[in-house]
Write a structure and sequence with these properties.
By secondary structure, the protein is an alpha/beta fold. The chain has a single domain, classed as 3-Layer(aba) Sandwich (Oxidized Rhodanese, domain 1). The chain is built from four helices and five strands, in the order E-E-H-E-H-H-E-H-E. A five-stranded mixed beta sheet has the order 1-2-5-4-3.
């Protein structure tokens, strides 16, 4: 189901699963490292919310970015911020990891150090 909140498209669990292998979409987990380590969607890199501003100018404006957090609140804020900074295709994972019914992986898998780590 697709809907919109504050001008930001909202994807649910099924929409996320459908697009995980789409290379034109960058999935970004914006939680804190300890939350990510407890369980994240395999292959999705960690870029904590507080570090977004230092990377935002180098994010590919031609890509769709889907932001993920625990419940959808922080990722909604990041999606709105990203949209205001020129990432016109920012999407929020509504319900976040609390609503994720797919596979998860624990431990640090991929932490964004350089913006190129997203792509």
């Amino acid at each position: 189901m697709r809907n919109e909140k504050d001008g930001i498209p909202q994807w649910d669990d099924e929409e996320i699963k459908k697009h995980l292998d789409d290379e034109s979409i960058a999935f970004v987990d914006v939680r804190e490292p300890d939350e990510y380590d407890e369980g994240h969607i395999p292959g999705v890199p960690l870029l904590p919310m507080g570090e977004i501003p230092e990377h935002i100018d180098r994010m590919d404006k031609d890509k769709t970015h889907v932001f993920i957090c625990r419940s959808g609140g922080r990722s909604q804020k990041v999606a709105r911020y990203a949209n205001e900074q020129g990432l016109e295709r920012a999407i929020n994972f509504e319900g976040g990891m609390l609503s994720w019914k797919g596979e998860t992986k624990s431990g640090e898998e991929k932490r964004v150090q350089e913006t190129s780590d997203l792509y």
